[in-house]
Write a sequence for this structure.
């Protein structure tokens, strides 16, 4: 018999309200939403105020609640909620990729220690079942690489730029008007969001445990119309990619814009859509694609996690439990493009091998090879408006 799930929901924003309406629509007898906790009692919401509580204790100290849905946007507050819930042997479903990436090992261990499930399908690519697929379909199929378009805002901007090259700021403003970008899009366009998602994916894909400080992160903030023209002339697309590749037992991983041959399937993923390209020894190449954000699509992933709890599901962490340590390779050489309107901005960059210097109208660019570690160090305190992209290998 399925177990009865009594839910406490933290947050009633885009995803929280989405799961509320999905549960009302589906009316699953074994699932009961008992309490919703929100922070601000004065914020207008789509259902009456009597449905809400305002203190975390209303959920965390209620012994009748055995599942906590953590769907708030404050990573520090989310960590406190999730840690307390797991400690008290409540199952947790979360969509907070920043909180998970920063406390991953601790929270996974705590859930296992307490004999409860910590599920987070919605944290990586919204409605796309990436984590469950990696665990259930590829748990014992060795992966060679993972390539993810996991940020809808950045993909929307790059799609628009390829349709009609124009100033970056104009597209961001338009994306904000249409709800495809936050009022402060920093986490999206500077690659933070994609980095957190890559850390989570790497553990399920390779059993590799990275921390945010390990991973090189380069965003799209300084992409220019001339960079788009350069890519088109070479028959490339540009996508912000969370990239992981296993070479000789070592994992190279980074987040950066990539020049990808226009013939590859992943280049067709447009606007706010997400995709994950999985390359495996046995199954070869597979591409998962779909809505990476949005109230109902993301809530659908939360609902999937909820219904899996009816079957007492927990991630098996297949790759992590196969006892072969994956070392992180930061010395791997990659081919890099850097560009700026000011040639002096390019001078501080040191390549192992410089391949080409050139111009694209008013734009100056250089192409060369350097290690992931070296690029990470060189962009750490970068202040100039340099665009950086990696050539897909």
């Amino acid at each position: 018999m399925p177990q009865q799930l009594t839910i406490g929901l933290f947050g009633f924003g885009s995803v929280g309200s989405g799961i509320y309406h999905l549960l009302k629509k589906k009316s699953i007898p074994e699932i009961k939403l008992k309490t919703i906790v929100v922070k601000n009692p004065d914020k207008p919401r789509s259902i009456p105020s009597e449905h809400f509580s305002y203190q975390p204790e209303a959920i965390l100290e209620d012994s009748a609640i055995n599942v906590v849905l953590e769907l708030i946007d404050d990573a520090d507050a989310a960590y406190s909620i999730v840690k307390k819930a797991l400690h008290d042997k409540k199952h947790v479903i979360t969509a907070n990729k920043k909180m998970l990436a920063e406390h991953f090992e601790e929270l996974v261990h705590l859930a296992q220690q307490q004999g409860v499930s910590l599920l987070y399908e919605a944290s990586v690519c919204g409605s796309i079942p990436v984590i469950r697929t990696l665990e259930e379909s590829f748990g014992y199929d060795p992966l060679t690489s993972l390539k993810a378009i996991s940020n809808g805002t950045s993909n929307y901007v790059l799609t628009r730029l390829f349709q009609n090259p124009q100033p970056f700021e104009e597209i961001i403003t338009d994306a904000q008007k249409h709800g495809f970008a936050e009022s402060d899009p920093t986490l999206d366009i500077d690659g933070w969001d994609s980095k957190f998602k890559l850390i989570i994916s790497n553990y399920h894909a390779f059993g590799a445990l990275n921390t945010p400080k390990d991973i090189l992160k380069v965003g799209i903030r300084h992409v220019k119309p001339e960079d788009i023209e350069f890519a088109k002339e070479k028959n490339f697309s540009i996508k912000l990619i969370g990239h992981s590749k296993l070479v000789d037992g070592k994992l190279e991983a980074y987040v950066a814009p990539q020049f990808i041959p226009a013939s590859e399937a992943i280049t067709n993923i447009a606007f706010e859509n997400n995709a994950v390209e999985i390359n495996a020894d046995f199954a070869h190449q597979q591409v998962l694609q779909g809505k990476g954000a949005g109230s109902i699509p993301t809530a659908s992933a939360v609902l999937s996690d909820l219904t899996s709890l009816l079957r007492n599901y927990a991630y098996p962490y297949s790759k992590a439990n196969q006892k072969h340590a994956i070392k992180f390779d930061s010395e791997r050489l990659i081919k890099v493009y850097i560009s700026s309107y000011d040639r002096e901005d390019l001078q501080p960059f040191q390549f192992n091998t410089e391949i080409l210097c050139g111009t694209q109208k008013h734009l100056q660019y250089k192409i060369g090879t350097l290690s992931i570690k070296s690029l990470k160090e060189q962009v750490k305190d970068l202040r100039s408006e340099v665009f950086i992209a990696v050539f897909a290998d």
In short: The mean pLDDT is 95.
